[in-house]
Amino acid sequence: MDIATINALPCEEFVKIFDNVIVKCPLIAAAVWPRRPFKDLIAFEEAISEFIDSLPDSGKEGLLRCFKALAGKEFQNGTLSRESDEEQKAAGMDVLNSNEVSHMARLNEEYQQRFGFPFVICSRMHNKVSIFNQLLVSCQNERTVERARAIKEAKKICHLRLQRLVLSD
Ligand code: 2AL
Q1: Residue 169 banded pLDDT, cuts 50, 70, 90
Q2: Cα–Cα nearest to 140, from 103, 115, 104
């Protein structure tokens, strides 16, 4: 799909295609649609990034709350979006042993209790060891540091999803 095709999409169609560009949240696509025409894919991604940056802290945390836990119940039940499922599998979340699954669940719960949103990481850029390490560090972080780190990761997820969605088509 080239940028001219993207720029020509009516809002409804655009939102349908890009509703999961970070996490299932059609609001993001709807918010950047009026910013077309985009010069290129980089400009499209920048518009999304600027929209996220424009959100108040509560909005950024609201976005993070749309994510599901790594190796969590939705992953186990197979009810994640295709993109999330593939990303979690790319980091080996499907081959954790039972000790690792319960360790991950405990850390995810501790994190969720502390921050009120789930731990988010761009899993295609990680493996299970680096995910456990970051989760341990993140559980000790200050809220502002952690919110900023998680938003950065959400943008990395967005970058890779856009590349796959637009360039592979
Ligand atoms: C995810 C996800 O769905 N994809 C990814 O890279 N990371 N979720 C998460 N909680 O970090």
Answers
A1: low
A2: 115
- Ligand 1 centre distance from Cα of residue 72 (Å): 11
Written as one string, the DSSP assignment of 93-128 is: GGG--HHHHHHHHHHHHHHHHHHSS-----GGG--H
- pTM of the complete model: 0.96
State the closest ligand 1 atom to the C-alpha of 125, by its place in the atom list counted from 1.
6
Phi-psi region of 92 (alpha: psi -120 to 50; beta: other; left: phi over 0): left
- Delineate the domains of the chain, giving CATH numbers in brackets: 3-59 (no CATH), 63-160 (1.10.3330.10)
Identify the helix (H) or strand (E) that includes residue 140.
none
Q: What letter would DSSP give residue 20? A: T
pLDDT tier at 167, thresholds 50, 70, 90:
confident
Joined tokens for residue 59: 């909005």
Number of H helices, E strands in the chain: 10, 0
Helices 57-65 and 143-162: crossing angle, nearest 10°?
60
What are 127-159's pLDDT values in tens digits? Answer: 999 999 999 999 999 999 999 999 999 999 999
Ligand 1 in reach of 87 Cβ (< 6 A): yes
